[in-house]
Write a structure and sequence with these properties.
heterodimer, A: alpha/beta, 22 strands, globular, B: ABC transporter involved in vitamin B12 uptake, BtuC, 4 strands, binds adenosine-5'-triphosphate, binds magnesium ion
C-alpha cells in the first residue's frame, strides 16, 4: 500500500545497543539491540509484556537503561528526560494517552513549548498556538477547531491530537505505541496516509501494534522481541504474518483462530423496543441465545457502547423491556445486572475497568467480593485461588498476583479486566472491544475461552471494531448504524462487504 | 466571565435577598448603607487574598490547611517584632520586620512544597501538621500574651485601615485600602494563571501530572511554587488582618481562616480534583462568604446558626454551579455532534 522509502545507505538515526532494564521482580529488557533509519516505518513487535513499550520508553527519555547505550546520529546520548528526547527530535505517542483534558487542543499540542509574545512578561501567544495547531490538524484531516477542549473529544480524536503534537515538534523519530487500537477505520486510513507523508519527509516511525495486518501492509523493517530479548529482525520482503508470529512466540502458529460449531440454546437475553438515551428515535430489538456468540459491528459512535451501558445498568433506558431467560427484569444499576447474571467488560480499561493502584488479585475479585465471604468474613485463601486461576487461564504476565495493576503492560491490564468479569461466571457476557491491545497468542486464548463459555451455555455479545475478530468469532452479527440495528447477518450472509455496507448506512 | 456567571448570579441573589428581607422587615435596610458596604468590601478583600493563595494550590490538585495558622503566626510576629520592649516587643525597624516575615512565609511554603513533591507526602497531611506547628510557635514566641500596636505605626496600619471617599459624603462609602491591594494581587494572579506559561503548567499538571511531565514540564518546581504563593499570601494576609484588628490573640487569631479560604476558592469554581479555577471566581466566592456573614448579622439571625447557614449556602452554591456546568457541557456536546455530522455529510 505504501511504497517502501527506506534508505539503507543513509547512516542510522538512532541505535540502541545492549539495553538492559529491570524492574523489581521483572527483567523487562535484556541485551536488546535496535537500529532505526530515517524514512522507515520500523515495527516493534512482540507478545504482551515482551518489553516493547519499555524499549520505547528508554529511547523516549522516560526510563534510563540499567546497562547498554543509545546513540543518536552516531553519538552516545544520555536521554534522561522527555525534554532531552524532544531536543534530540524524538516524540512519543503513548499507549495510554497523555493529555490534559481541561485544556484546549492547541494548549496540549504546545504544552511545554508555548510560543511567547514579545515583551518582558513572556505571555503565551495563544493566537499563534491556535493558528499553527490548525495547520497540523488540517494535515490530519481533523475538523474540530484548535480551541476545543480535549475533554470534549473521543479517544480516537484525542489520538489525533497526540499526533499533531508530535508533528509540531518537528520530530525525526516518532514513536507510536499502538496508535490504531482505538481509532475508527477512517482515522486509521488517515493515519497511514500521514505516516506515508512523514516517511517521505525522512521521518522514522517506530510503530508498535498487535494488528499484524497493518504491519505486513506498511512496515519496512521489524524488530521482534520475546520475553525481553531480541528474537529476530524482518525486512520488508520477509514481513509476513507467519514470520512475525513464529518469531514472536518461537514456534509455528496456524492461521486465524477458527471457531467450532456449537448448539444454540433457548433465548437468554431479549431486548424489546429498548430506547437508549440519546437515540430516542431508534427502539432496539434483538435477542441472544444461550451458547451463542453474537458479534456487534458498526463504526465507532454507532451507539454500541451506549447500548452495552444500558444493558449493564450504568445508564437508564428511556423505555422498553429487557428480558433475561424469558423473565422481564428491571436493570437500574450494575448490581441489578450482576444479580441477573450479566457482566460487562468495558471499553476503557483505565477508567472503567481497573483500579490501577490495586493489585492484580484485588482487581480480579473486586466485582464478586461478596461471593467469597463466609459469615461476613472475606476468605482470603479463596480470593488467591480465584485470582491465580484467572492468571493461569488468561496467561496474565505478572511477577505475582500482588503486583499493582498499573505496573503491568497494557495488554496484560486488559486481561485482568477480562478475568474480573469471567471469574464471576456470568450467564450473559457483554464484551466491548475485548481484545484491544492484546497479542495474537493471548487473543487465541481469549477466543478459546469465549467458545468454551458459550459451550457451557453462556450468551455472549461481542462489540468489536476489528473485522477479523467479528468475522472469525460470531455465530451471528448485528450491525449498528447511527443508533439503529441496520442488519442481522447469519450464516452465508456474513461477509466483510455486507457488514461495511450496513455499518456505513449504504443501502 | 462566562465561567463565573453562575457564581456571580449567586452573589447578586444573596445581596438582593438580604436587601429585600431587611427592607420588608424594617421598611428600610442597613445593607446598602455606605458604612456597611465599606466593611463588606474590606472583609472580602482580606479573605480574598487568602483565597487566591489557596486557589493556586487547589489548582495543582493539592490543599493547604495551614493558612489560618500562618495568618496567626505573621499576625502575632508583626507587632512582636516592631513594638518596643516595654510592650514585650523587639523594637525592630518596620522594613526589617516585613522582610523577616516574608522570609518566614516563603520558607513555610517551600518546606510544604518540598515535602509534598520530593518526599511524596500528601498535601493534606503536610499542611495539617503545619496548622498545628505554626499555631504552637505563635503561642510560644509570644508566651500567649495578646499582641497589639499601641497608638503608633500609622504608616503600616494604613495598609488595612486606609480608605478613600467615593460618592456623596452623606453616603459615607469609602474604598478601603485592602480592596486596592486585592485588585492589584488579583490582576497579577489572573495574568499569571491565564496568560503565562506557568499558569498553564499549573492547570495542566493539576489535571494530568504525567502528561505535564512527559511534555517536559518541571512539575515539581511548579507544584512547589503553588505552595509558596499560598504561604506568601497567607503571611501577607496575616499582616493585613493584624493591622485591621489591632489586638491579636496568639491562640485564636486566624483560626478557621483556611476553611474560609478554601470555601471561597471552591465556591469560586476551583475543583479539588485540580486543573480548574479562575481568580475572578475566587474573589466572588470570598465575597459570597462575607455577604452571608453580613446577612446573618443584619437580618438578626441567631449567631448560633451562623455556621449552619454558611455551610448550607456553600453547598447550595456548589450544587447550582455544578448543574450549570453540566447543562453547558451537554450543550457543547450536542453542538460538537451536530458539527461533526454537518462536516461528514
Ligand atoms: N514501571 C514498571 N514496574 C514494574 N514492572 C514493569 C514496569 N513497566 C513495565 N513492567 C513490566 O515489564 C514487562 C514489559 O512491559 P512492557 O510494557 O514493555 O510490555 P509491552 O511489550 O509493551 O506489552 P503490551 O503489548 O502488553 O503493551 C512487563 O512484564 C511489565 O509488567
Ligand atoms: Mg505496551
Amino acid at each position: 500500500m505504501i511504497a517502501s522509502g527506506s534508505n539503507s545507505n543513509s547512516p542510522p538515526l538512532l541505535e540502541a545497543r545492549g539495553i538492559l532494564k529491570t524492574f523489581p521482580g521483572v527483567r523487562a529488557l535484556q541485551n536488546v539491540d535496535a537500529t532505526f533509519y530515517p524514512g522507515e516505518v520500523h515495527a516493534v513487535v512482540g507478545e504482551n509484556g515482551a518489553g516493547k513499550s519499555t524499549l520505547m520508553k528508554v529511547i523516549g527519555g522516560i526510563h534510563l537503561p540499567d546497562d547498554g547505550e543509545v546513540l543518536v546520529d552516531g553519538q552516545p546520548e544520555v536521554i534522561d528526560s522527555v525534554g532531552r528526547a524532544t531536543e534530540l527530535g524524538i516524540a512519543f505517542i503513548h499507549q495510554e494517552l497523555n493529555l490534559a483534558d481541561n485544556l484546549s487542543i492547541g494548549a496540549n499540542v504546545f504544552l511545554g513549548r508555548e510560543p511567547k509574545k514579545a515583551g518582558p512578561l513572556g505571555m503565551i501567544d495563544n493566537k499563534q498556538i491556535h493558528e499553527e495547531t490548525e495547520v497540523y490538524l488540517k494535515q490530519l484531516d481533523f475538523k474540530m477547531p484548535s480551541t476545543t477542549l480535549v475533554r470534549d473529544l473521543s479517544i480516537g480524536q484525542q489520538q489525533i491530537v497526540e499526533i499533531a503534537k508530535a508533528l509540531s515538534q518537528n520530530a525525526r523519530l516518532i514513536i507510536m505505541d499502538e496508535p490504531t487500537s482505538s481509532l475508527t477505520q477512517h482515522e486509521t486510513d488517515r493515519l497511514f496516509e500521514v505516516i506515508a507523508q512523514l516517511k517521505s519527509q525522512n521521518v522514522c516511525i517506530a510503530y508498535i501494534s498487535h494488528r499484524l495486518t497493518e504491519l505486513t501492509q506498511m512496515a519496512d523493517t521489524a524488530t521482534v522481541l520475546k520475553d525481553g530479548e531480541n528474537s529476530g529482525e524482518l525486512t520488508r520482503d520477509q514481513m509476513t504474518h507467519e514470520n512475525l508470529v513464529s518469531l514472536m512466540v518461537g514456534r509455528e502458529v496456524s492461521e486465524f483462530y477458527k471457531k467450532t460449531e456449537r448448539e444454540r440454546g433457548e433465548v437468554l437475553l431479549e431486548v424489546e423496543d429498548l430506547v437508549v438515551p440519546g437515540q430516542e428515535n431508534h427502539p432496539l430489538n434483538f435477542e441472544i441465545h444461550a451458547g451463542e456468540i453474537v458479534g456487534m459491528a458498526g463504526l465507532v459512535g454507532a451507539g454500541r457502547t451506549e447500548l452495552s451501558r444500558v444493558l449493564f445498568g450504568i445508564d437508564q433506558a428511556v423505555s422498553g423491556t429487557i428480558k433475561v431467560a424469558g423473565k422481564s427484569v428491571s436493570i437500574r444499576s450494575p448490581q441489578d445486572a450482576i444479580a441477573n447474571g450479566i457482566a460487562l467488560v468495558p471499553e476503557d480499561r483505565k477508567q472503567q475497568g481497573l483500579i490501577l493502584e490495586l493489585s492484580v488479585k484485588d482487581n480480579t475479585i473486586l466485582a464478586g467480593l461478596d461471593r467469597y465471604q463466609k459469615s461476613k468474613f472475606t476468605q482470603h485463601s479463596k480470593l488467591r485461588e480465584v485470582s491465580d486461576a484467572m492468571v493461569d487461564k488468561l496467561l496474565i504476565k505478572t511477577p505475582t498476583i500482588d503486583q499493582e495493576v498499573q505496573l503491568l503492560s497494557g495488554g496484560n491490564q486488559q486481561k485482568v479486566v477480562l478475568g474480573k468479569w469471567i471469574s464471576l461466571g456470568p450467564r450473559i457476557l457483554l464484551l466491548d472491544e475485548p481484545t484491544r491491545g492484546i497479542d495474537v497468542m493471548a487473543k487465541e486464548e481469549i477466543y478459546r475461552l469465549m467458545e468454551q463459555m458459550a459451550k457451557e451455555g453462556v450468551g455472549i455479545l461481542m462489540i468489536s471494531s476489528e473485522m477479523e475478530e467479528v468475522l472469525g468469532m460470531s455465530d451471528r452479527i448485528l450491525v449498528m448504524h447511527e443508533g439503529e440495528i441496520a442488519g442481522n447477518l447469519e450464516g452465508d450472509a456474513i461477509s466483510e462487504e455486507g457488514i461495511m455496507r450496513l455499518a456505513t448506512g449504504a443501502k | 466571565m462566562k465561567k463565573n456567571l453562575g457564581i456571580f448570579l449567586i452573589l447578586v441573589s444573596i445581596m438582593l435577598i438580604t436587601f429585600l428581607i431587611g427592607w420588608l422587615k424594617e421598611g428600610e435596610t442597613s445593607f446598602l448603607e455606605g458604612g456597611n458596604l465599606t466593611v463588606l468590601l474590606k472583609r472580602t478583600s482580606l479573605f480574598g487574598v487568602l483565597s487566591i493563595g489557596v486557589a493556586f494550590v487547589i489548582i495543582t490538585g493539592g490543599i493547604d490547611l495551614s493558612i489560618g495558622s500562618v495568618v496567626g503566626l505573621t499576625g502575632v510576629l508583626l507587632p512582636f517584632f516592631i513594638t518596643p520592649p516595654d510592650n514585650g516587643g523587639m523594637d525592630m525597624p518596620v522594613p526589617l520586620a516585613l522582610f523577616l516575615i516574608f522570609i518566614i512565609s516563603l520558607s513555610i511554603g517551600l518546606t510544604h512544597g518540598l515535602l509534598i513533591t520530593k518526599l511524596k507526602l500528601q498535601p493534606f497531611v503536610v499542611t495539617l501538621c503545619g496548622l498545628f506547628v505554626y499555631r504552637g510557635i505563635s503561642r510560644v514566641v509570644t508566651k500567649d500574651a495578646n499582641q497589639g500596636f499601641g497608638i503608633g505605626f500609622k504608616g503600616i496600619k494604613s495598609m488595612a485601615k486606609g480608605k478613600f471617599q467615593v460618592g456623596p459624603e452623606s453616603w459615607e462609602f469609602f474604598l478601603p485600602a485592602p480592596f486596592l491591594i486585592l485588585i492589584v494581587i488579583g490582576i497579577i494572579a489572573a495574568i499569571y494563571l491565564n496568560l503565562t506559561v506557568y499558569g498553564r503548567y499549573l492547570l495542566a499538571l493539576g489535571r494530568n501530572e504525567i502528561a505535564a511531565r512527559f511534555s517536559g514540564i518541571k512539575t515539581d518546581n511548579m507544584t512547589i511554587s503553588a505552595y509558596v504563593f499560598s504561604s506568601l499570601l497567607a503571611g501577607f494576609g496575616g499582616i493585613l488582618w493584624a493591622c485591621d484588628v489591632g489586638s491579636i490573640q496568639p491562640s485564636g487569631f486566624g483560626n478557621f481562616y483556611e476553611l474560609y479560604a478554601i470555601a471561597g476558592a471552591v465556591l469560586g469554581g476551583c475543583s479539588l480534583r485540580g486543573g480548574e479555577g479562575t481568580i475572578l471566581g475566587v474573589i466572588f466566592g470570598s465575597a459570597i462568604l462575607v455577604c452571608l456573614q453580613n446577612a446573618i448579622n443584619i437580618l438578626g439571625i441567631s449567631s448560633q446558626l451562623e455556621f449552619a447557614v454558611i455551610g448550607l449556602a456553600i453547598l447550595i452554591g456548589v450544587i447550582v454551579d455544578e448543574v450549570i456546568k453540566r447543562v453547558a457541557a451537554k450543550r457543547r456536546a450536542i453542538q460538537n455532534a451536530l458539527q461533526a455530522k454537518l462536516e461528514s455529510g
